[in-house]
Design a protein that fits this description.
The protein is mostly beta strands. It contains no helices and 22 strands. Strands 4-5-6-7 form a four-stranded antiparallel β-sheet, with no helix packed on it. It has a four-stranded antiparallel β-sheet with strand order 8-9-10-11, with no helix packed on it.
């Protein structure tokens, strides 16, 4: 099953076959309606197959039961009609699937517990001071990594622990680039991949809270053209005989697709 979101305020579900389609799939299986603006991002629950979360420009997060095709929870991450600067730029389920983290432009960083029906914000620190989009990923059940910009034009990352959320465990430069670094974390090897839209570079970092800065730069991959979209292949597609820990797919602005293998 494939889920998609768009500017028409809906989340659509598509049933895919086991073979490559011979034509475009035009009729959606169903349409989840409720957002009052663009649906900016969606994320499947890590373990419950029928749960999907969405975040919209209407400053709301919704958790959907796709079997019943209804939103079972709704949370406000910003003020409707308020500053356009706090529109969400990233939303992720936690590893356990009991929390949802939302980054917004301008530095807002909220964590919701979807089990609390009152929509109460669990944590709400100021993340990165820069005005651009920000991203996050969960390293484990209690720690997160965020990426954004400092007050100037310098990219930075921060490491957060839910148990001590008043300030980050670490904050440090995160390489060069004009766009925010999108984060992909491998729990097994404690490795982080960072790929920015419009950047030719994909960087690899080792995550370790016992070292200074909590992260160590392991190296960069430089492609032939800037990145438009970036995603990871499932683990069952890796080649263990080559010590492969990641295989990524890059859509490039020259209308080509490249596969990148990361090996230890």
């Amino acid at each position: 099953m494939l889920a998609s979101s768009s500017k028409d305020s809906t989340v659509k579900l598509w049933m895919l076959g086991t073979e490559a389609p011979k034509d475009h799939a035009t009729p959606a299986l169903c349409s989840l309606e409720g957002h009052a603006g663009t649906v900016l991002a969606i994320d499947w629950h890590n373990s419950v197959a029928n749960l999907l979360a969405s975040v919209g420009s209407d400053k709301s997060v919704r958790v959907w039961d796709i079997e019943k095709q209804v939103a079972i929870h709704e949370f406000a991450y910003g003020t409707v009609g308020g500053s356009a600067g706090n529109v969400a730029s990233c939303m992720r389920w936690s590893k356990l699937g009991d929390l949802i983290s939302v980054n917004s432009k301008g530095g807002d960083f909220k964590i919701f517990d979807p089990r609390l029906k009152d929509g109460k914000v669990f944590h709400n620190p100021k993340c990165h001071p820069g005005p651009k989009a920000q991203q996050n990923c969960w390293a484990d059940d209690t720690q997160l990594i965020t990426s954004g910009f400092a007050t100037g034009v310098d990219r930075e990352y921060a490491v957060w622990d839910l148990r001590y959320f008043e300030a980050p465990l670490a904050r440090a430069p995160f390489g060069s680039g004009n766009s925010v670094a999108h984060l992909h974390f491998d729990t097994e090897h404690k490795l982080l991949l960072a790929a920015g839209h419009g950047s030719m570079t994909v960087s690899m970092w080792q995550y370790n809270t016992e070292i200074e800065g909590c992260m160590k730069h392991m190296g960069d991959y430089v492609g032939a053209a800037p990145t438009v979209a970036f995603s990871m292949l499932p683990k069952n597609k890796l080649d263990p005989t080559k010590h492969e820990v990641f295989r990524a797919v890059r859509c490039q602005n020259d209308h080509s697709i490249s596969y990148v293998s990361f090996q230890l």
